[in-house]
């Protein structure tokens, strides 16, 4: 996540983090469905409007790094590493995110997500949005000579690789396996018009 530089931006970021941390603690203690936004606001000592100024929906409190994840995905393919090798750069970013989301202490959060229809639905729509943003970044990248369909396919497979890996017994091996298939498919797609 980009570190805010000004005092006001730092205060906003600290408030946002406090709200997210408070919400997650309450959700894990009492269950996602049992906790309301008013309770999160009261516990975080902020107004309900402040919660909604930072988070568009209750589900977003659980996925508070959503924007950061999406930004890092697009930067992976548009930055220097992506210009050197699109698929390896994307794999490195997905692997970093998988490591973060499977780190010690993450299991109860994923159990909560898996147990909530609202959170599962939100996660699915989030992955779809990430894939669309990633596809646009792939298409806009310099020297990309694959079709739009190939770029959208790569984006969807990469985002789904994250979901598959997080559920695997060995997440890092799962990323390697999925990206071997992605690399082969990307190469088979070949340049547009060939």
Structure description:
The structure is a single chain. With 194 residues, this protein is mostly helical. The protein has eleven helices and no strands. It has helices spanning 7-30, 37-44, 48-54, 58-62, 66-78, 80-84, 86-101, 107-114, 117-140, 148-167, 171-189. Helix 9 (117-140) packs antiparallel against helix 10 and helix 10 (148-167) packs antiparallel against helix 11. The termini are far apart. The model has no long low-confidence stretch (mean pLDDT 90).
**Sequence stretches where pLDDT stays below 50 over 5 or more residues:** none
The rounded Rg comes to 18 Å
Strand % is under 5%
Mean pLDDT: 90
Q: How do the helices and strands follow one another from N- to C-terminus?
A: HHHHHHHHHHH
Class based on secondary structure composition and strand pairing: mainly alpha
Helix content: over 70%
For the report, how would you describe the main beta sheet? none
**Which geometry do the CA atoms define?**
globular
The end-to-end distance, rounded to whole angstroms, is: 40 Å
Count of separate DSSP helical elements: 11
The total beta strand count reads 0
Keywords summarizing the entry:
single chain, 194 residues, mainly alpha, globular
């Amino acid at each position: 996540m980009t570190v805010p530089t000004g005092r006001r931006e730092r205060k906003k970021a600290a408030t946002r983090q406090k709200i997210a941390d408070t919400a997650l603690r309450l959700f894990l203690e009492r269950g996602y469905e049992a906790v309301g936004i008013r309770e999160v606001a009261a516990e975080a000592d902020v107004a309900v409007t402040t919660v909604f100024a930072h988070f568009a929906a209750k589900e977003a409190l659980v996925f508070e790094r959503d924007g950061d994840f999406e930004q890092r995905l697009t930067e992976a393919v548009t930055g220097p590493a992506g210009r050197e090798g699109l698929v390896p750069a994307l794999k490195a970013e997905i692997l970093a995110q998988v490591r973060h989301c499977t780190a010690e202490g993450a299991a109860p959060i994923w159990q909560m997500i898996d147990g909530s229809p609202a959170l599962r639905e939100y996660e699915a729509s989030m992955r779809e949005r990430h894939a669309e943003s990633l596809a646009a970044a792939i298409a806009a990248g310099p020297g990309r000579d694959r079709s739009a369909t190939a770029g959208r396919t790569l984006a969807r497979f990469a985002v789904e690789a994250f979901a598959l890996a997080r559920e695997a017994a060995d997440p890092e091996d799962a990323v390697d396996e999925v990206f071997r298939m992605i690399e082969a498919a990307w190469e088979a797609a070949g340049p547009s018009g060939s």
